[in-house]
Amino acid sequence: MKNIFLNGYITRYSCIKCYNDIKLNHSREAISIDIKINNAKGILIFLVVFGHFLEFNAGPYYPLFLFIYTFHMPLFITISGYLSKRMTLQKIIRLFILLIAFQIFFVFLFNYFDFIKFSLLTALTIPIYHLWYLASLIVWYLSVLGLNKIDNKKIKVMAIAIIIFFCVISRYYTSNISALIPIPGAYSYTFSFQRTLSFFPFFLIGFLIPKNIMQQLYNIKPNILKLAFIPVFLVTLALLKVEHIDLLLRGAVGFSEMNLYPRLLPSVQLYIFYFLIPLICIGVLNIIPSRKTIFTNIGSKTLPIFLLHPIFILVAFKLKFFIFEFSYFVQIIIWLIFTIITIAITSNKIFVDMLKLKKIKLK
Fold first, then answer.
1. Residue 274 DSSP symbol
2. Longest Cα pair distance anywhere in the chain, in angstroms?
3. CA distances from 239 to 106, 154, 268, 273, 276 (A)
4. DSSP codes of every residue in 90-104
């Protein structure tokens, strides 16, 4: 009897220990994934800010500028989609409030500093500078909020397929879509519609990727398979020598406005944008560390950094001709210092708390 009781206790203890071990392993994996995502977001927001500083004099360091643009927004948008699986209307409304507030703020600020001049019509219809991303996020969030309400899997798959197909071919018909907008002089930047469409497939890919698949993409095994990304990077670097290729990477204009034909056929441009760039994104993900780094904390504060960094761009704008007196190498170092200072200030707890909009409640 004693042996039966002892064996039962041991079995029960073993089961509990096994369960706790499994639970602990899953927790570690979840923590590792969160750290990897925050590292990726931190590195990408750093590149967003750095790229905007480089843009002042992109000509001398054009290859570096272009290389950043091949993956920093597509990957950032994919991660945004991945993190939007439980979207709420409250979050969308908060984002809309931020868009309106910062649109007004930067229109006045940019006009005052003669950085970018806006007419009243332009200010009302074109998201200023970096705010195209917020405008696009609102559209994407509303879309996934609607998709989450579709219970029929076949209808949901069909809806996603139609959206992706329309977005992929939209750059063939940018001018036609512009003509449908009932605003004088409407074009691809109006309401940021072309960027919204161009990058929407990246957002949807992130939204659709399950956690287990994302984890496999993070850490491709065996490691020797990662060597397959080398030719992808080399081909991409070769393509970056094509004049005006940055217009393709920005996603803001249609094929007829890019002047890449006949050097690159529209079909080849689609191949670059929707096949090569996703492969580069996967390659970049695999070299981002899973342990805590300086970028982990930055990655959890991307919103204030993104929204406020143009203030420091304006400071650089006033100093640019002085900075241009230095060699190209020194200019890059200066822009790196500007980037570090910008991120250090805009990621301060004051701005993080301010932009949470905690007091806004929906009834």
1. I
2. 91
3. 35, 39, 11, 12, 11
4. HHHHHHHHHHHHHHH
What are the tens digits of pLDDT across the range 51-67?
Answer: 999 998 877 888 888 89
CA distance 330 to 321: 14
- Residue carrying structure tokens 């002892």: 6
Exposure pattern of 19-37 as b/e (b: 16+ CB <10 Å)? eeeeeeeeeeeeeeeebbb
Condensed to tens digits (0 to 9), the pLDDT of residues 178-192 reads 999 999 889 999 999
- CB contact at 8 A, 240 and 280: no
Distance (Å, rounded) from C-alpha 134 to C-alpha 308?
13
**Using CA atoms in the order 320, 324, 250, 242, what is the torsion angle rounded to 10 degrees?**
160
pLDDT band at 125 (very low <50, low <70, confident <90, very high): very high
Q: Which residues contact 280 (CB under 8 A, 6 or more apart)?
A: 70, 71, 229, 232, 233, 236
Percent helix, strand, coil in the chain (nearest 5)?
80, 0, 20
Rounded Cα distance, 258 and 189, in Å: 14
CA dist., res. 97 & res. 115, Å (int): 24
What tokens were used for 157? 């798959």
Give me 89's structure tokens. Answer: 């209307």
As a whole number of angstroms, the distance between CA 310 and CA 316 comes to: 10
Place of tokens 């805009």: 346
Tokens of 285: 């993900």
Q: Is the Cβ–Cβ distance between 297 and 42 less than 8 Å?
A: yes
* Measured distance CA(278)–CA(71) in Å, rounded: 8
pTM attached to this predicted model: 0.87
